[in-house]
Predict the structure.
Amino acid sequence: MHQDSSVAFADRLTQVAAAVEDALAGFLAPAAREGEIARPERLMAAMRHAVLGGGKRLRPFLVIETARLLGRDTGDVMQAACAVEMLHCYSLVHDDLPAMDDDDLRRGQPTVHIAFDEATAILAGDALLTLAFELAAGPAEPDDCGVHLDLVRGLARAAGLGGMVGGQVLDLAAEGRYGDAPPGEAGIETLQAMKTGALLAFSVEAGAILGRATVDQRRALVAYGQAIGAAFQIADDVLDREADAAAMGKRTAKDADKGKGTLVDILGLPAARARRDAIAATAIAALSCFGPEADILRDAARFTVERRV
């Protein structure tokens, strides 16, 4: 990424992250929202611990910037962006549990089950998941109902059995928990497309839905999002081998410790980096039907492969 472009992108990412943080804090305020009876203090503290004060906010950034590319910059875009981020954070809370990856550090802080307890962590994840769908469903004017139905359906598919949850099952199987043979290259690509790629890809598609993209625009943006998701996971695997835990804010080399193969293991680091960069180039090429207004998304693809944390 050119230095000037890199600085502009970093500034925009920071700006959007701050706006998303403020919106998330509002949705996770202690006072009960309309239709709620009460918000238990301990549960809210655990949810806020899971969500606030950290993270790149790349997924909500992709929602917001894709919608903005299409001329949509309204409150429902931010609400949908927060829905995607809450769902992502729920997945991290559950992923960190002893029954899953058994991690004690996330974003440089104790994981939720360490800071609170396992039962609270499970319930905090459940609450974030369900709140995410509430946010994705509205607010909506009568003529927006189809848009928000599309959002809810897409979020469910990205998060569910054919997406993130299914990918987590494949991830556990890859550790040998169920007696399965280690996955080959195709199996790892499927696992990663589901566990990590599906929600990243939907973040772009959510922006396309909110921006009322044409069929051709949506097809191009979906292709871009799928490539971003694939490149992001390979970049994560490379960082897991090259970065230290202090820089990452979480334990590194986890997959190697558990004997779980990644594309880095199969391809080797140089070839994995080359695959990562080629997929990012594919993402950028998918935006060819858009003009310079899409440069922020092109820079997001470059950021995905150049990031160091």
